[in-house]
Write a structure and sequence with these properties.
The structure is a homodimer.
Chain A: H1 2-13, H2 18-24, H3 37-49, E1 53-58, E2 66-71, H4 73-84, H5 95-101, H6 108-136, H7 145-176
Antiparallel strand pairs in A: 1-2
Helix pairs in contact in A: 1-4, 2-3, 6-7
The structure holds a DNA duplex.
DNA sequence: TAACCCATGTAACCTGTTACATGATTAA
DNA sequence: TTAATCATGTAACAGGTTACATGGGTTA
């Protein structure tokens, strides 16, 4: 039931359509929870059946109609009670580490190339996070309550990506010399 | 098809039964790929059908019989070719970050308590990794090829857990004062 | 004598992925 | 005129979770 929580969290941030949500899941919430548009549409139907969200049909000229979803008070209560229930650390699923674990059956050049490839991806993600930090949180001493929480999640991304980069560099060195 | 790779990687490390694999997925490979025993048994059947692994039935007195699975050369080739195919960074799925993203609908005490709870879990994991490092890799200048790769994955765990701890501490401070 | 370990499995269900489908509008 | 954007959906399948089931052996 975790996709539902991510959707409710996104809708709590701002009411929007399934299509908008799908785009949000490519940024913001999507940085720590990924989902395709099909999953989102399916989940929205269930959430509406459970009265956690309300849909308002918006008729548009020259564009397909859309449904704007809003959290109901029941949905908000449900989100809050989930947040208040302690959880364990989310399990990892990481391809790169599986590859490196079995790395000895390939050549070290292959593994080093893959590490460099991942280093480039992490560097790009770090740059994305840093530019969001500069653009949406230029003044860290003046954060609203909502902003402070968003900023904390951004800091996590920046810290973790920085750590990945350091580890990639260290591992490449260990394998090249 | 990623569980299959994790199983092949585990079997490449050492031939074992489904039951042993399930235990391995609570440590070693399990640190970066989790799976239940039901998933493992189901996947083993498929891998055997595809001739990526071979089963040898071991009859035991006073204990249920068991099947020891070994990688075939076809399975090894398949694992190697997967490792040689570049992959993108694995997507995240993290409950805590979703909770914090929507943190403003709960009290800051709730969020701080959850951060402390997670900090304790990360500290425990870090200790686990550090004791493995001390016990299985006491002399880092004398690593075999296989050990070097395992050591690199352990270093990742140590680095990431350390970063999580730093982030938890920083976030708690931001919310408490 | 209760609980846990060894060892494997079935069944039902939920979640996630991929492909396909529609149809108008807008920018290159 | 080609591709992308807006907006929603169906269908089939793969992967993951939870509960249930068996039955002997060992440890507290």
């Amino acid at each position: 039931m975790a996709l539902s929580h991510a959707i409710l969290a996104a809708l709590n941030d701002c009411a929007c359509s399934g299509y908008d949500l799908a785009k949000k899941f490519d940024g913001s919430v999507g940085f720590f929870w990924n989902a395709t548009h099909q999953q989102i549409y399916r989940e929205l139907i269930k959430l509406e059946e459970q009265s956690y969200i309300d849909a308002q049909l918006i008729h548009q000229e020259h564009r397909p109609d859309k449904k704007i979803y809003t959290l109901t008070s029941k949905g908000e209560e449900y989100l809050r009670s989930w947040i208040e229930t302690p959880s364990t650390v989310s399990p990892l699923k990481d391809d790169l580490l599986v590859k490196i674990f079995a790395g000895s059956i390939a050549s070290s050049e292959t593994i080093v190339a893959e590490l460099k490839h991942h280093r480039a991806q992490h560097l790009e993600t770090l740059h994305t996070y840093q530019s969001i930090a500069a653009q949406v949180f230029p003044d860290r001493s003046q954060l609203s309550n909502v902003e402070r929480y968003h900023y904390i999640t951004l800091r996590q991304g920046i810290g973790i990506e920085t750590e990945w980069l350091a580890w990639c560099a260290e591992s490449i060195e260990l394998l090249e010399f």
